[in-house]
């Protein structure tokens, strides 16, 4: 190949440019020697030949290399690489596979191993008395350890659990469907009675659609995570019971707690959240206020009218647990939302247990159609738990029909609750939780010692003695609930009494008198 005439001159000029400067400014460089010129010309020729090989169209250009069967070389290298990766061991154990640990090494590993606890460590847990064994329920009485006692612990507010009509409905359902439902609702677990119950609840509550859960404790823990995630905010009353607490935790949302039934503190939190979001320019997210209609931990009513107004003002969605209010509050027994004048849908999410006034088991959530439909895909208890046994669905539906037409039963519950609270309010030494006028309608009454000792263990012991005295002398069964250490707060030892439609005025008056007499007698040795 002929070398271009200008290439040697170009190489020579480049070489001179790289030489160090001369000592004298007026010195004139001498031309390169013939040997240097020849070497530079040979270098230029070699560079040109190299360029022709690697330039587009050359033999060593990637395209040309592949065209001249160079792709076979690349493919062979890839095959070797794949074979090397496949035959590599999955792990690199410190010992060979056939080498076993010695007895000394095994003992050393066992000594070093420290098991982690499956639950948080608990410093102290209240001692639990020997449980009473209930053998049968006879109307509003219960047989415990062979004794017939007045039952004031059951939340069967309307007495429907012993209804012969509901028992007949259950028997007929078992004869037709059996006692199981095969699996989750989305996998052979839906029976026609489930759909009928959902329609009946929607019609009763005045909502568009309802979804039912087989386990009431899993209802709140499924509903809240279905709508809230880590970007959202849940503001709830500090007195909500454990299922709601668990639902808040599982949702991973930011949880803010306001003081129990304190509307001033609730509005303070809502204003604070709005100010922080504006300052940090946070994107829009979902926000919920979660309360109970009647609180399991205090027996007090939530002021839903005021809470609804704050939710609308600050653009929050309202979620209400109506478990203890369904069948008890409201002209038609729809619960606290109806009692406080909220229209159907005023609370966007309403959920409740069917194990109280509805004489069944499981829970439900009702609201707009989108609320129920979304849970069919995102409600964990709906998607992964076996569906409700058919006979429980038909018993709940029969109880719902009874609730809708039993206005007299609701009036008896309200009358008995107000009477018992007034009677107990006059007992010296005892304090009725819930002093607001609206709390007179709550059939769940909590009693605490007025001059309670500082030690909660001692206070619980005294209340246990009082409850035992009432059981032995007055033949009345009352209970002292235990707070779990994993709950947000321990509300202190208290006696819980539940009023139903079957409790007469004389029985309620006798209970209050018995508590007063027992307190006088026991306080002598305290």
Automatic annotation (TrEMBL):
Signal peptide segment: 1-25
Family under the similarity heading: Belongs to the class-II pyridoxal-phosphate-dependent aminotransferase family.
Protein name (Swiss-Prot/TrEMBL): serine C-palmitoyltransferase
Statement: the UniProt record of this protein carries the keyword Lipid metabolism: yes
Entry keyword annotation includes Lipid metabolism: yes
Any one GO BP annotation for this protein: sphingosine biosynthetic process
Source organism of this protein record: Ostreobium quekettii
Listed EC numbers: 2.3.1.50
GO CC field: endoplasmic reticulum; membrane
Organism taxonomic ancestry: Eukaryota, Viridiplantae, Chlorophyta, core chlorophytes, Ulvophyceae
Keywords: Acyltransferase, Lipid metabolism, Pyridoxal phosphate, Signal, Sphingolipid metabolism, Transferase
UniProt xrefs under InterPro entries: Aminotransferase_I/II_large (IPR004839), AON_synthase_class-II (IPR050087), PyrdxlP-dep_Trfase (IPR015424), PyrdxlP-dep_Trfase_major (IPR015421), PyrdxlP-dep_Trfase_small (IPR015422)
Source species, domain of life: Eukaryota
Sequence ranges assigned to domain Aminotransferase class I/classII large in this UniProt record: 148-511
One term of GO molecular function: serine C-palmitoyltransferase activity
Pathway the protein contributes to: Lipid metabolism; sphingolipid metabolism; Sphingolipid metabolism
Pfam families: Aminotran_1_2
Cofactor(s) required for function per UniProt: pyridoxal 5'-phosphate
